[in-house]
């Protein structure tokens, strides 16, 4: 939700010494990213993209959108990472990568698991494992809840 997103943003702004962002993405760039992935980002994620583009906060790296050339980008570009995993391991089209745990697990916006606002929940995904063996465990109800939890964990 927007409330959780706003609380997370406040924590990020209060801890600029450990925050590094890519500068906010323009509305045009966000629209291009959505067109490329053929979906609509949730409102709280759009706010994140327009504020930060993508974000490194301490040891965590939240994927986002920060350059127009998606195909020749790299981590932490959510479009590049998602398209890359779709190509490499046939990742389902209803998932969009937000975060790589570094332990073989990705956190994704899951457009098949919607919350009460018809926005994607955040679920786990393990690249390289067949779709039928994926648990797609729901980790967070929305992007704001995910971001708030991640930044709180990082400062604690």
UniProtKB/TrEMBL annotation:
Pfam families, per the entry: SUKH_5 (PF14567)
Protein name, UniProt field: Knr4/Smi1-like domain-containing protein
Species for this entry: Candidatus Enterococcus mangumiae
Superkingdom of the organism of origin: Bacteria
Annotated ranges, domain Knr4/Smi1-like: 24-149
Segment forming the signal sequence: none
């Amino acid at each position: 939700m927007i409330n959780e997103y706003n609380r997370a943003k406040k924590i990020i702004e209060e801890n600029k010494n450990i925050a590094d962002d890519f500068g906010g993405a323009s509305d045009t760039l966000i629209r291009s990213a959505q067109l490329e992935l053929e979906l609509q980002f949730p409102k709280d994620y759009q706010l994140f993209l327009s504020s930060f583009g993508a974000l490194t906060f301490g040891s965590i790296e939240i994927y986002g959108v920060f350059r127009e050339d998606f195909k020749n980008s790299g981590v932490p570009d959510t479009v590049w990472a998602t398209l890359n995993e779709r190509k490499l391991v046939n990742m389902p089209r209803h998932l969009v990568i937000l975060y790589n745990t570094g332990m073989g697990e990705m956190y994704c916006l899951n457009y098949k698991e919607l919350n009460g606002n018809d926005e994607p929940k955040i679920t786990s995904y393990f690249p390289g494992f067949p779709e039928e063996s994926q648990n797609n465990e729901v980790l967070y109800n929305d992007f704001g809840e995910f971001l708030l939890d991640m930044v709180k964990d990082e400062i604690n």
